[in-house]
Specification:
Low-confidence stretches: 89-101, 103-111, 113-123
Shape: flat
Structural class: alpha/beta
Order of helices and strands: HHHHEEHEEEEHEHEHHHH
Mean pLDDT: 85
Largest sheet: 6 strands, mixed
Strand content: 5-15%
Length: 321
């Protein structure tokens, strides 16, 4: 806000004239919080795609989908056991009865005021014990401790989930980002962020394809990797009038020769790999390798804004082609 007082480039960027008064920091903070909402970020993405120069580059038939892990702003030390709701200790049948308070000293002081000065001092006058000091960055050994999302949660960001990308890799506290890309120009048309789990990619893919083409009766194609080769996901796509161009697993694949025999399947499998470029740009340039926000809603808005910003970054090459 201080630089906007004398930097005309910032004023031009936000739509202020040279002689217009600059906002106070409170107004700027409210606008920033309003921007970090899912609805506003999706409107920003839709406005970019609706531009007349961008709309001509989009494909309305062929799409690709994929997901990536977004590291949460929380350390593994914050992944602590969930608090158990202990029952109130009201005393059982075998417990000894609680002792009644001794009021004899108070009664004697009331009967004989001269003995009040000789009464025992009250318990609250004793000095309070100092709590044990705890190191905020203490060493913690997790070996031999079994931790899962069912029994543990992060005290820093409860929305983060413990997840590992593949076998042989370490688990991290993260979210899972998803994007839907059109295959002609490689532009992102939908973005979503969910909790990290084994079914999140397929659920998010169905949500994004329905949100982008609601009630479409035109045949679409959707390219994806082997992680989407599931019988229920393929059946849901075919029911939605979408041809699943999903990479086949080595065994028990839901895709057969009815789909793979067409030349469009091989083309979709080649084109879908381009979706890794927006993910790489978002993590290296957009700062999404590890988010600095906490909470699923705020991280989702930031992820959507970052993927929307990737489209203008690609436009110079697409318009020059």
């Amino acid at each position: 806000m201080e630089q906007m007082q004398y930097n005309p480039l910032f004023c031009w960027f936000v739509g202020l004239g040279v002689d217009d008064p600059v906002w106070v920091p409170t107004v700027f903070s409210k606008n920033r919080d309003r921007l970090l909402t899912t609805d506003m970020s999706r409107k920003f993405l839709a406005a970019i795609l609706a531009h007349r120069e961008v709309a001509a580059l989009l494909s309305d038939e062929h799409f690709s989908v994929d997901g990536t892990l977004i590291k949460a702003w929380a350390s593994m030390k914050s992944f602590q056991p969930k608090p158990q709701d202990a029952p109130p200790d009201d005393g059982g049948p075998g417990d000894p009865p609680a002792a009644a308070p001794d009021r004899s000293a108070d009664q004697r002081a009331l009967q004989d005021p001269q003995t009040a000065d000789r009464a025992e001092p009250a318990a609250e006058t004793a000095p309070m014990p100092k709590p044990a000091r705890r190191d905020r960055n203490a060493e913690i050994d997790f070996r031999g401790e079994r931790r899962s999302n069912a029994t543990h949660a992060s005290t820093t960001d409860p929305d983060a989930r413990l997840f590992r990308k593949s076998r042989g890799t370490g688990a991290i506290l993260c979210f899972m980002g998803h994007t839907l890309m059109e295959n002609r120009g490689g532009l992102i048309v939908q973005a979503e962020l969910t909790h990290a789990d084994g079914h999140a990619e397929r659920r998010a893919a169905l949500d994004m394809i329905h949100r982008h083409a609601p009630g479409s009766t035109r045949r679409l194609t959707l390219g994806a990797d082997k992680g989407y080769d599931s019988a229920d996901f393929v059946a849901a796509l075919r029911q939605a009038c979408v041809t699943p161009h999903v990479a086949q697993k080595a065994r028990c694949s839901a895709i057969d020769g009815r789909t793979t025999r067409h030349p469009g399947y091989a083309l979709s499998q080649k084109r879908r790999k381009k979706i890794e470029e927006p993910f790489g740009w978002a993590k290296t340039v957009g700062g999404m390798a590890q988010t600095v926000l906490r909470g699923l809603e705020r991280v989702r808005a930031r992820f959507t804004l970052t993927m929307a910003a990737n489209n203008p970054a690609r436009l110079p090459k697409l318009l020059a082609a």
